[in-house]
Design brief:
The complex is a heterodimer. Chain A contains twelve helices and no strands. The model of chain A has no long low-confidence stretch (mean pLDDT 90). Chain A is 80% helix and 0% strand. Chain B is an alpha/beta fold. In chain B, helix 2 crosses helix 3 and helix 2 runs parallel beside helix 4. In chain B, 42% of the residues are buried. The chains are: A mainly alpha, B alpha/beta. At the A-B interface, helix 8 and helix 9 of A face strand 6 of B.
């Protein structure tokens, strides 16, 4: 299928959905409106709300806050995950001792930590960053741990036979291998950083996309809730696109999934 | 004056501890020497422990008994005089062909600005001058072997250890690689210990062919000198009368071991 056909079909899906939504929420079918405006609003109102946010400029502050929280959560969580993952993989004893605790914390639904973080760190950005970190950390940690442990035996032996010291093996074999595993989970971990930020905002804050949605919900402004959701989706797609660009740059040495290089 | 001995295994024995506490003896009392400048091929049936013996010479594996000497010095730890060409892919997948070759010099402390041009020269001499910026997954199996060969040779090791290096390649590529190896080897005649299961390849390449018996507890059961003139061409040498005579002679010994090897692995399969 050509790019143009694909793109037009993709757009068609959106147009059909929006048209149905608009129709069913404004035109009565057999004397009854199937999507009551109170619960479903309608696309035109939602769009008007989005335009208002952007034209008045209020949205930028909230987007900025959510972006900052996501980036901080991602950077801190990744850094911690890489370091601890590396350490555990190289020290099996440490890994064995901490194993049950790692599993326990990872099994905990992270949302329950949000009130504690709010209590400890206040309603500012850091309680949201902390929530994001607990999500990002484990993804990166498990990937790096696996990556270091599963370095090919032959590649390691080759490094040794070429005369690498332990430090050089670290630099030329373990480290690139661990990073490649980390980057392969980049989409997931960036996604979770955003989830942490928005959920944190939703549960208690003074700014951010999660806050916008929560405020709109509080006054039964359904158009506002939907508008917040759309802005958030666009925001996530943009970030994901950025991640794809970074990934392409960093993982050139990797064969593509279909094996055609 | 006698030629110095590059590798000497004396009564080397290799054993592995099995999970259930029993000891599996892979190689029993192996006695093998490789003189400086000599090309020795080890041939044996599958699972006879020929790669194990090579790993002992490399220092990757410690023998349970016996002595290993490299240039008359007992080997402790890894064999620093040896370059090792692995059967499986051993290139660093995150480095380009050029960086893969240059790394051997860089870890020794050679500045990058000096290592890169030398690596480029080596890539050219293995016929990959135009592929310097490719990553391993963008190269064919044969091309990867060429990079691996350059990676090992750029360090100018005194001994070359090769573990069925051309095993995974198709028949034509193997012959081309064999000729390339002989050309490069002819330039400075390092001591080579070459493990293969292919008797023809062994005779075509080597000065001496050593036969191992089927495992477990395999031993060295034969040692033939190959006096075919050098430089050789792998395609041509196979048509030589002497080649055929030698092949028939060695094969008569090797055949029994190959059969034994199959019988044993069939038994082991039944036991499981």
């Amino acid at each position: 299928m050509s790019r143009v056909t694909l793109l037009s079909l993709q757009v068609l899906v959106a147009v059909v959905c929006l048209a149905l939504w608009q129709l069913l929420s404004t035109v009565p079918v057999f004397g009854k409106i199937l999507l009551p405006p109170f619960f479903f609003s309608n696309p035109i109102d939602v769009f008007a709300q989005i335009v208002k946010w952007f034209s008045s400029g209020v949205i930028w502050k909230h987007l900025g806050i959510t972006l900052t929280e996501s980036i901080l959560a991602f950077v801190i969580g990744s850094l911690g995950g890489v370091l601890i993952g590396f350490w555990f993989a190289r020290q099996p004893l440490v890994a064995a001792v901490f194993d049950p605790y790692v599993k326990m914390v990872n099994a905990l639904p992270r949302v329950v930590l949000a009130p504690i973080f709010a209590l400890w760190l206040g309603l500012g950005i850091w309680s949201k960053v902390a929530l994001g970190v607990t999500l990002v950390f484990f993804i990166v940690f498990f990937n790096v741990y696996q990556g270091v442990k599963e370095v090919s035996r032959t590649v390691l032996d080759n490094g040794r036979m070429l005369g690498m010291s332990e430090r050089q093996l670290m630099q030329h074999v373990y480290w690139p291998s661990a990073l490649s595993w980390m980057f392969s989970s980049l989409h997931t971990s960036v996604g979770f950083a955003v989830v942490g930020a928005v959920v944190g905002e939703y549960l208690g804050s003074a700014a951010g996309l999660g806050y916008l949605i929560q405020q709109a919900e509080g006054i039964f402004d359904v158009a506002g809730v939907f508008a917040g959701m759309f802005v958030l989706s666009a925001f996530v797609i943009l970030i994901d696109f950025g991640v794809t660009l970074v990934e392409r740059r960093l993982l050139v040495w990797r064969p593509t999934v279909d094996g055609r290089g | 004056m006698t030629t110095p001995t590059a590798v000497a295994l004396e009564d080397a024995e290799v054993a592995f501890q099995l999970g259930d506490g029993r000891v599996y003896t892979a190689v029993e009392k192996a006695h093998l020497t490789v003189a400086q400048g000599e090309f020795v091929a080890i041939v044996g049936p599958t699972g006879c422990g020929k790669s194990t013996l090579l790993n002992v010479a490399a220092g990757l594996l410690k023998p349970a008994a016996g002595r290993v000497e490299i240039f008359d010095q007992p080997l402790a730890g890894l064999n620093r005089d040896a370059g090792y060409l692995f059967q499986a892919d051993a290139l660093f997948p995150w480095k380009t062909a050029l960086d893969n070759v240059a790394i051997g010099l860089e870890i020794r402390g050679t500045p990058r600005s000096e290592a890169l041009p030398r690596a480029q020269k080596w890539l050219t001499s293995v016929g990959l001058g135009a592929f310097a910026n490719r990553y391993p997954h963008m190269l064919s199996g044969g091309q990867r072997k060429r990079v691996a060969l350059a990676q090992v040779l750029i360090r100018d090791p005194k001994i070359l250890l090769m573990d069925e290096p051309f095993g995974p390649l198709d028949a034509q590529t193997r012959q081309v690689m064999g000729n390339l190896l002989l050309d490069l080897w002819n330039a400075d005649r390092k001591a080579v210990l070459f493990v293969t299961h292919d008797l023809e390849e062994a005779i075509a390449l080597a000065d001496r062919v050593v036969i191992m018996s089927a495992g477990p507890s395999s031993r060295i059961i034969g040692d033939w000198r190959v006096s075919l003139p050098r430089p050789r061409d792998i395609f041509e040498v196979r048509l030589d009368k002497e080649f055929h005579a030698l092949h028939r002679e060695i094969w008569s010994v090797l055949k029994d071991e190959v059969m034994k090897g199959y019988a044993q692995s069939a038994q082991a399969a039944e036991a499981v």
